[in-house]
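Hi L.,

You mentioned the student needs an example of a multi-chain input paired with its predicted structure. This one should do, with 1057 residues in total across all chains.
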Amino acid sequence: MIDRDQVLHVARLARLALTEDEVETMARELSGILEHVDRISQLDLDQVEPTDHVVDLENVLRPDEPRPSWPREQILDPAPDPADGAFRVPSPQAEA
Amino acid sequence: MPDLLELTASQASKALEAKEFSADEYLDAWQEAASKDDLNAYLWRDDTRNGERGTGNGSPNGHLGVPIAIKDLFCTEGTPTTAGSRILEGYRPPYTATAVRKLIEAGTPVLGKTNMDEFAMGSSNENSAFGPVLNPWDRERVPGGSSGGSAAAVAGGLAPWAIGTDTGGSIRQPASLCGIVGMKPTYGAVSRYGMVAFASSLDQCGPLTRDVSDAALLLATLQGRDPCDSTSVGIDGGIKPPDREDLKGLRFAVPSGLAMDGVEAGVKSTFAATLKTIEELGGEVGEAALPHADHGISAYYVIAPAEASANLARYDGVRYGLRVPADELLGMYEGTRAAGFGAEVKRRIMLGTYALSSGYYEAYYGQALKVRTKIAEDFAKAFAEFDFVVTPTSPSVAFKLGEKTDDPLAMYLNDYFTVPMPLAGIPAISIPAGLAEPDGGGPQLPVGFQIAGPAFSENAILDAAFALERAIGFDARPPGVG
Amino acid sequence: MAEYEPVIGLEIHVHLQTRTKMFCGCELSFGDEPNVHTCPVCLAHPGVLPVTNERAIRYALMIAAALGCKVAPRSIFHRKNYFYPDNPKAYQISQYDIPLATGGRLGDVRIHRVHLEEDAAKMIHVGESGRIHGSGASLVDFNRAGTPLVEIVTEPDLRSACEVRAWAQLLQTTVRQLGVSDVQMEEGSLRVDGNVSLRPAGSEELGIKTELKNMNSFKFLERGIEAEIERQRGLLEASEAVIQETLHFDPGSGSLTPLRSKEYEHDYRYFPEPDLVPLAPTEEMLREATEALPELPAERDERYRKELDLSPEVATLLAAEPKSADLFEQVAAQVARRDIPAQVVANWVTGEVAAALRRRDDGSDASNVAPDLLAQLIGMVNSKQLSHTVAKGILPAIIFEGRDPEQLVEEQGLGQIGGGEELEGVVEAAIEAEPEAAEQVREGNQKAIGRIVGAVMKETKGRADGGEVQRLIHDKLGV
Ligand SMILES: [Mg+2]
Ligand SMILES: [Zn+2]
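Structure written out for the whole complex:
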């Protein structure tokens, strides 16, 4: 139902590196789950409105008033690779 | 002086107000008890006395000094918050979740952070990166999940009460498997701010307690509109202490649309017996069709993973948490997330990403949102005729560790009775209804009874549950507890 | 060989000048130290939730109104999912199938949609990373992350690079007048991306389009679009195919380089943002937005042509320059009772005044000009107290020193010489000084009159009225 290539494509979208075994099990398990889930695609719901929110609220807005930002030391403290007051990351291939 | 650990939270808070003993004595007793955790229920414990003690102002009905166990899904400033995941190991949030802040302001010391299925994904607590939690009733069995640590702590005498989160049953099912009370409030009743997101349109925070009165007392403090959560509204008029003695004039519906095959014999008989008790209390029991509830699992296992795939995308090794270094960005992303997430989390991220990916959205996510509409309509119809819908909380009593770990689908079916309510956004409670053997024999284990009502009917549900609880008179405790 | 017609649509991002970010209370900033305007929300820490900025909605509704768009009765936010270090949640909160507003037009260009979203962080490439050798690294600064953006998408109604530039400038003045953004291309508070395709002239269907990014000034916008049109024309004339891709404009070389697809090909997996509730602008919100609108360039242009019958060129010129337009309107109002046509005032403002300001080039603009003094000057020219030439000469003193024209004329004796003996004498002298020019005029060569007029003007230092001088010469010479 969902094959190896689809698993690899989805894993790339989700930025997950999968081992060979994981690719196999993933294909098998996802297929099993999707087979069950697929039952809903048999339901005729063309006329039904999708529920995107369960609470019926509208226009919940915040006044445009500044709150103090966090001290830089504090927000950089958990950073895996802080540098020059910023978060350092390896460059994307496109720019490297 | 009473045995402090035997008091319910409500009893203790009254005694504390009456100065029968001091808040420090009481906290010491519980810290002592929590330190004996042999269930792997806690991931972190505060054994200092300087844990923040609010003044109790800010609390509608003060439970000053009654400490609490917090599911490790809630951010607590400066103390570890892992969501049961390696990817957040060592992470200390710069802020505190609204629900926890309200408890602290109400004078509730935090005993510790409890173990859970990674990112709240699971029904057995076996998906924690920090080891499974054991069920105090039988240490070879699971406590349920994902709030398994909170449930086991309360049932196992390691905390007077706890909070957890429920997305598809993560409060009600472990409460059921551990023989305690667990309630999922109406979506929007309690702020989600600071609660690590799993499935944002379903997640709700709620109480896990020894009895219904404690659940009400805790929910009274937790609920309320929060300007930091656009989807929060609170509960009009707040939560009153339940005091109902009978069920006269109340109508309870058993859903005819839900399949009872796959439900254990012991669970069935306990459920039947509880329906009798309802009638003895003057309640009416009938049948209501919930034709689409049967599709709850399918809709849930599309919607929740889809939202989770986006909610968990922020764990990318850039700003906090785990990073696996690599010499280019893609490698850093894929390596970090591969190393940081466990198997079930990866499975759900994959499932959700697939369901949203181009070409599949309409067939899966779009269709699931429509099923959600139908399920809500079914409940609305039922509630036009009935006050409550009742079901067993879980198809089975606590199952053995490892029993279902290699069959994800079988594991998902545990949520059969608990997913329709969050899909419809409505509240539901699970109370202990008795003990029963698992199919194929084994020890006597708790069976939960679920009562669901219309949105914001928490007071009515708590009242009914309170009357039923007294009639059932469930007073069993796990071996060696109490 | 077939003639090709460029077809261009624009995607514009406008930074809203609110005090705080779109979904958190951090203050907006430009050019501050990195990461000093951040919080758990805009850094996407676990458990945080967005809450929409009310002023951002108000500003977006003003832009929608200014562009004559239809506001959706109920619009929702979506999550646009993609991994990139400048995107902290790994999804951007944006709008998708139900944007804030649709339709509308500005000038001759139709607006497709207007929607709200949040900006990304800044990334600076820093070459060698400390940790991993032989590889590049980037620094991420989240100050900008979460800045409120309005995205405006046009229909493909533009046909040339200079049309694009002119229209983008009209959009800039329009938005600037709303006071909702400082719309600076150089600072990135106005970003204009182009979708360019070519098609055989006369054909109706669209060719394959490319997307142009990073043109961070009007000059570069025009150049980038021009370059891409040429590139595509080259391909088509060599009967090669244009491939759909995103091109990055390099201001340095003026060259266009394709962005490597590997990092940039996306499946955004849009779905409704569960953390935010729908937006349903109330009657009151909509009224406030429309009432807050000043008169915008397009309307002014219209009014100047219709009510003040200015020539189309001058009307458009003024309408696009709010300050000149204001000066024009004040002066025109003052001289109206001496029934001097508005066109005359418009010519002065867009002509001599603009030129004087340009020459001075010290940052002073039309708003520095005292309307009453300018009105006085124009009045004096009109009543022939002063020749145009002289008026032009003393204009700088009036604009930059605020001198009173009457006085200046007094002091320097610049009053115009009307008819009468004085001028007749000068004219006769000039005719005697230019015998052969006079002869040619008699023989009907009108051009030759110039030399005599010139002589008169030289003698009178430009204070004579040209028309009068010609008339005198003619009857002296009996033609
Ligand atoms: Mg955009
Ligand atoms: Zn912020």
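You could point out the following to them. The CA atoms of residues 265 and 439 of chain B lie 7 Å apart. Confidence is low (pLDDT under 50) at residues 52-60 of chain B.

Best wishes,
N.
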